[in-house]
Amino acid sequence: MLLFYYKRDLLRGGDTVCPSCRSSHCAYVSSVNYISFMIFPVFPTSISRCYSCFNCSKLIKNSSGSPEQFPRISKFRIFNKFIAVPLALVILLMVQSYSQNMEKLQYQFRLQPQKNDVLFIDNFKLSTEPTQVLYPYRMAKITKVDNKKQTMSIVLSSLGYRSISRANRDFVVRRHLFSSYFYEEEVELSVKMLLDEEKVIKIKRPFNLLDVENLHNDVEFEKKFEEFPYL
Questions:
Q1: How many domains are there within the chain?
Q2: pLDDT tens, 27-54?
Q3: Sign, CA torsion 193/194/195/199
Q4: To the nearest whole number, what is the mean pLDDT of the chain?
Q5: Cα-Cα-Cα-Cα dihedral of 194, 198, 204, 210, to 10°?
Q6: Which long-range contacts (CB under 8 A, 24 or more apart) does 55-62 make?
């Protein structure tokens, strides 16, 4: 699929005789030729003058006509062909600002961990066990934070992943909300370990955390579901 296109912005002038077929259904045309990204003009490449013949159904390049006979192209018509440049700069600044904010947020999560924070870890580097080589990436949930001892307890996910993107996918579909997704055995670690970005790749902080399995076992939930099945 092509994203960049070569386009022409035509400006029609007065009528004339076609130099090719001698038809009177012809007009002076000035055009701004430009490159566009999808529907957004990126930059102009040239300005050309030609004849537009309705009988020939083609544009004939000017070789003899006086430039004064052709419609004049305003500076605004040329400058607005650069519209994609400021748009790209605005988008770039927004992305950069978002990235910086996310880095600050990640640093805050690492300094001040909370219960139920979800860690994306490299379990092979964390445990140095050879069995973790093939599926090194896991999610882990913080179950307890001891600020005095500067320690925390985590439970590891029962699933390992070949790539961090697969762990991200399971986080998006909220598999971490199921208590059975994690092992019951807790591992105690130092809070300072969170500053090691090779072992703890990133941290997510869920809001309004629910245990989906306990919610489904709730009698009140079942009654409401029977009464309002689309709730």
A1: 2
A2: 888 888 888 888 888 888 888 888 888 8
A3: positive
A4: 83
A5: -80
A6: 55/18, 55/21, 55/23, 55/25, 55/26, 56/18, 56/20, 56/21, 56/23, 58/20, 59/29, 59/31, 60/18, 60/19, 60/20
> Listing from the earlier edge strand, what are the strands of the sheet with 26-37?
4-16, 26-37, 40-53, 58-61
Q: What is residue 65's DSSP assignment? A: S
Q: Give the end of a domain, one of 36, 61, 82.
A: 82
Domain identity same for 202 and 125? yes
Residue 73, domain extent: 4-82
CA distance 29 to 13: 6
Phi and psi torsions of 189, nearest 5°? -135, 160
Q: Are residues 118 and 222 in the same domain?
A: yes
| Residue 149, token pair as written in the block | 């001892």
231: confidence class by pLDDT, cuts 50, 70, 90 = very low
pTM given for the model: 0.61
Q: Kindly state whether residues 77 and 164 are assigned to the same domain.
A: no
Could you tell me which of 198, 183, 196 has the C-alpha nearest to residue 139?
183
How far apart CA 142 and CA 31 sit, in angstroms, is: 64
Higher pLDDT: 215 or 92? It is 92
- Rounded to the nearest angstrom, the gap between the alpha carbon of residue 110 and the centroid of all alpha carbons in its chain is 25
Judged by average pLDDT, the poorest of 21-35, 75-89, 200-214 is 200-214
